[in-house]
Specification:
385 residues; alpha/beta; 14 helices; 11 strands; 35% helix
């Protein structure tokens, strides 16, 4: 991690104030694309009630870690010194917290007027719920996304829609957009990335269908929510699952040929009232073969087919293997960098660092002398070597 960094963001420095969920996701994305991400962490780990080794916190990969007492004046001074050398800072505290720490936007702009200050919250920096606690499930519940997913009851789609999709990805996009603008204006700005806003944005096309009268509010009764029998999952003879999605007529006709079904006598696929009967027909047809047999017959065809793979199986699939979609770092199989670039490819810049592993090296870069660093350690501002 001390050599040249690979990726289109090489040369950028980002300060990440330690947190969980979407901010580390954003930091991982920026690091994978080449940015030098310095994660500022507390001296002691927060107790999240999840027993596991730090090396499994994949979202923290590729960083340098600095551990500080952020409540101390000297800890604050170190962070402000870091912002002087940085292009962006990202944080995920509740509104007003960094201001009370003396590390809010105005404090940081005073040190670096061109800094992009990325803020990640659930409900945003303002509004009736801005100060409320919450997690992914609460944020997507407020946008209509959660209500649209599931069958009898709403089911959270992991924490992909709020934390990572509507949160981390939108923060990364906002930071990159603001960095481009700053190159022209020379001025920084605050990026207010709220998971509610991002999750709502992800729902844009569904809201369009709803407005057009093409999407009902009944779960599991629509084209893309598992309601349509030609866009869903089916169990095979070996009780494994496959996914099919031939939305277009020509792909649908091809699937019927493979299933040896006569489209002229089947229920009308355009009629939602006929979907339950059509689904029963498909269920019986797909039950005739094992998943391995359907892979042999359908994979790579225009039927729009894929096996439903577990997390254990997915990395070994020939397509994922050929593209290095999953890689191994520090003995842990994990997703590789995305997206891909033809000339400046990204890379995992290193494994998950130990907490505070780079504190002294970073302070040395900032101009602190060995004697000053020793004094900071003795004062409890940084952790012992």
């Amino acid at each position: 991690m001390n050599g040249p960094r690979s990726g289109p963001l090489s040369g950028l420095r980002v300060i990440e104030l330690g947190g969980i969920g979407p901010v580390p996701m954003c930091g991982m994305l920026l690091s994978d694309l080449g940015a030098d991400v310095i994660r500022v962490e507390r001296l002691e780990a927060a107790d999240l009630g999840i027993p596991h080794g730090r090396r499994f916190e994949i979202l923290l990969r590729g960083r340098r870690s600095v551990a500080l007492d952020l409540k101390s004046d000297e800890g604050r001074r170190i962070v402000l010194a870091l912002t002087e050398t940085a292009h962006a800072l990202i944080e995920g505290f509740r509104p007003g917290v960094t201001e009370r720490m003396g590390l809010g936007p105005d404090d940081c702009f005073g040190a670096n007027p061109s800094l992009v200050y990325g803020r990640m919250t659930g409900f945003g920096q303002e509004g009736p719920l801005a100060e409320a606690a919450g997690h992914d499930i609460n944020y997507i519940a407020l946008t209509g996304a959660l209500a649209a997913i599931g069958e009898e009851r709403p089911l959270p789609p992991l924490n992909l829609v709020g934390d990572f999709g509507g949160g981390g990805l939108y923060l990364a996009l906002g930071v990159c957009a603001a960095l481009l603008e700053a190159k022209t204006s020379g001025r920084g700005q605050v990026v207010d990335a709220a998971m509610v806003d991002g999750a709502a944005s992800l729902m844009a096309s569904i809201y369009g269908l709803h407005a057009a009268g093409l999407w009902t509010e009944e779960r599991g009764a629509n084209l893309l929510d598992g309601g349509a029998p030609f866009y869903g999952t089916y169990q095979c003879a070996d009780e494994e699952w496959i996914a099919i999605g031939p939305l277009e007529q020509r792909f649908y006709d091809l699937m019927l040929d493979v299933l040896e079904l006569d489209g002229d006598v089947l229920p009308d696929r355009r009629s939602p009232a006929d979907w339950p009967e059509l689904r029963s027909i498909f269920e019986r047809a797909f039950k005739r073969r094992t998943r391995a047999e359907w892979i042999e017959i359908l994979e790579g065809t225009d039927v729009c087919f894929a096996p439903v793979l577990s997390m254990t199986e997915a990395p070994g699939h020939p397509h994922n293997s050929a593209r290095d979609t999953f890689v191994e770092v520090d003995g842990i199989t994990q997703p590789g960098p995305a997206p891909r670039f033809s000339r400046t490819p990204g890379a995992i810049q290193g494994p998950v660092p130990a907490r505070g592993a780079h504190t002294r090296a970073v302070l040395d870069e900032l101009g602190w002398t060995p004697k000053e660093i020793q004094r900071l350690e003795e004062a409890g501002v940084i952790s012992p070597a």
